[in-house]
Design the sequence.
């Protein structure tokens, strides 16, 4: 039932139909034929697929089916994905049986690039990820890790990426080469405090995590399952995990949407004589009525702690070339901040490109008068973006060349504007970036917000003449419609979908008494949540009923159609692959709304 309601992708329908009609003979071939991309299979969907198909029994009935074996391994990887919701792996009751079945028969798998990446992802999860938190019998997890280590060290698996032909395949093969032995190295101090930097499979766009382990167990997925631990750029390169004389509160992880939506995990780090103390754990959970889990204070030997932090900060074995270039540029700008400040600029996000990992991206803010100490309109800065492509020289040489150019040439002359207001950009002499500067002011107006995963994404086009008539809210947001109610009603009304394709008739499909029409703007009708302090009015995303989660003055347009239509009208396309929530890698220029506990954008 859950899959029939939530797994709406066309690629999943044959499998769901086989389950629905009870065609048990068709379940296995349809399961094998499922797409492996995270776009179609989230962690929650992966768990439901494994439960509905009775995956351990299928593996027992077909022990020599290598396609089924590979599919079972990929489902385990998806369930433990930290970028999504890793608690689904902990909620899957048959996880240990599937791990035993996949690892125990992994030698039957052909040594392809996909299978090598899948087995390595399982090993990384078993060594420092969510898989550690399963209720393993004593010594069983170590046996599985040792078995995977022996298998992947065999010559036939060591050359799995030798035939890589495309850029994506070569990038994946390079990841296997860099990371292949990492999960099988025995740490010098298995107990106590340890930081393990893990780069996930680049084919799945997995994040780079600075996993914090205490007594061999990962801290973040144990108490915070709504997002991955922060990257080493945030925790290590900035020195946030160092223990100083003054207590420091550090954000270890943030929800995959935003902290204002689903919270974050904090800890206070302080030095107490010859010990380092982690205490005062804090979770921000907006709108939640359940108490956050409490963690005790942890004490570590200060000398061992400092040694581990220094090792983690200097370890670059996980990093690829452009990521190393970005880290060296960032380190140089931290050491010499005057390199940018002389150009009235300040450092912002610096890392490898998300869309193109083979580039290094440097972003900075520009405020006139910053160097002289008299910034002009500091509340209206412009954001610039400089993309550095890998030229094949050593990363150290590329970073040094980039720092020299930043010091000798005004970076605003070769970087592009990627954030700030259009008016401010034109005022300062940087016009011509309509797609990156405030896309909500363009023809297709939208902002980003997050809704629970059981609600589908929709897009609300702006009213024709009433776009500026609502004094309560001037930003149009992505709307959500409930599965039961408006979603079914929308599928039952194809005429509404056809009308939504025509901008001139965009408001004729669901006319109400307070719907604005061309030439006759009407103010927003206050919603019941206005009494709680929300000023979004009728454009509020808070659920007023199961069938009303959108502005009644505008029709709901499915996300896929909105993306096609936004491309035709020249607007910025939404980047996330499936309607799970706002990813932390939203393109520069798209602002997220700030969510209050009620879920209303402010």
Sequence:
């Amino acid at each position: 039932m859950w899959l029939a309601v939530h797994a709406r992708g066309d690629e999943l329908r044959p499998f769901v139909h086989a389950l629905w009609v009870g065609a048990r003979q068709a379940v296995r071939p349809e399961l094998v034929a499922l797409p492996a991309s995270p776009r179609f299979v989230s962690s929650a969907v992966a768990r439901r697929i494994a439960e509905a198909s009775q995956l351990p029994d299928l593996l027992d009935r077909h022990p020599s089916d290598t396609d089924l074996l590979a599919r079972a391994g990929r489902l385990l990887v998806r369930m433990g994905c930290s970028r999504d919701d890793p608690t689904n792996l902990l909620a899957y009751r048959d996880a240990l049986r599937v791990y035993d079945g996949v690892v125990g028969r992994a030698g039957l798998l052909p040594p392809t690039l996909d299978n090598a990446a899948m087995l390595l992802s399982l090993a990384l999860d078993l060594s420092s990820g969510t898989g550690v938190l399963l209720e393993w019998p004593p010594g069983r997890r170590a046996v599985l890790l040792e078995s995977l280590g022996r298998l992947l060290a065999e010559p036939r698996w060591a050359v799995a990426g030798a035939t890589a032909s495309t850029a994506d395949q070569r990038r994946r093969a390079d990841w296997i080469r860099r990371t292949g032995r990492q999960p099988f190295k025995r740490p010098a101090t298995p107990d106590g405090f340890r930081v393990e930097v893990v780069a996930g499979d680049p084919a799945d766009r997995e994040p780079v995590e600075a996993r914090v382990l205490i007594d061999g167990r990962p801290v973040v997925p144990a108490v915070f399952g709504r997002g991955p631990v922060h990257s080493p750029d945030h925790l290590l390169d900035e020195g946030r995990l160092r223990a100083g004389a003054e207590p420091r509160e550090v954000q270890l992880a943030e929800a995959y949407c935003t902290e204002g939506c689903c919270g974050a995990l904090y800890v206070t780090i302080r030095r107490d004589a010859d010990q380092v103390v982690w205490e005062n754990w804090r979770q921000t959970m907006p709108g939640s009525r359940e108490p956050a889990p409490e963690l005790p204070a942890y004490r570590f030997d200060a000398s061992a702690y400092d040694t581990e932090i220094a090792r983690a900060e200097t370890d670059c074995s996980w990093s690829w070339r452009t990521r190393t270039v970005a880290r060296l540029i960032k380190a140089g700008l931290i050491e010499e901040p005057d390199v940018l400040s002389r150009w009235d600029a300040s450092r912002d996000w610096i890392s490898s490109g998300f869309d193109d990992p083979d580039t290094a991206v440097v972003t900075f803010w520009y405020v006139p008068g910053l160097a002289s100490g008299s910034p002009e309109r500091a509340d209206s800065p412009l954001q610039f973006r400089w993309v550095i492509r890998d030229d094949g020289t050593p990363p150290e040489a590329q970073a040094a060349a980039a720092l020299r150019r930043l010091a000798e040439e005004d970076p605003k002359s070769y970087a592009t504007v990627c954030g700030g207001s259009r008016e401010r950009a034109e005022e300062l002499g940087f016009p011509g970036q309509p797609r990156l500067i405030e896309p909500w002011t363009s023809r297709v107006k939208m902002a980003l917000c997050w809704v629970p995963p059981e609600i589908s994404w929709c897009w609300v086009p702006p009213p024709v003449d009433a776009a500026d008539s609502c004094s309560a809210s001037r930003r149009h947001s992505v709307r959500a419609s409930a599965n039961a109610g408006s979603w079914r009603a929308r599928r039952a009304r194809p005429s509404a979908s056809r009308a939504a394709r025509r901008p001139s008739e965009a408001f004729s499909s669901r006319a109400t008494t307070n719907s604005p029409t061309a030439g006759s703007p009407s103010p927003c009708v206050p919603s019941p949540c206005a009494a709680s302090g929300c000023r979004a009015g009728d454009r509020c995303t808070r659920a007023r009923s199961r069938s009303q989660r959108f502005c009644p003055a505008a029709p709901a347009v499915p996300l896929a159609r909105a993306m096609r239509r936004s491309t035709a009208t020249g607007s910025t396309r939404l980047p996330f692959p499936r309607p799970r929530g706002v990813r932390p890698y939203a393109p520069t220029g798209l602002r997220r709304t700030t969510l209050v506990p009620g879920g209303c954008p402010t």
Remarks:
- The first strand starts at residue 193 and ends at 199.
- The two ends are 36 Å apart (CA to CA).
- Residues 321-437 form one domain.
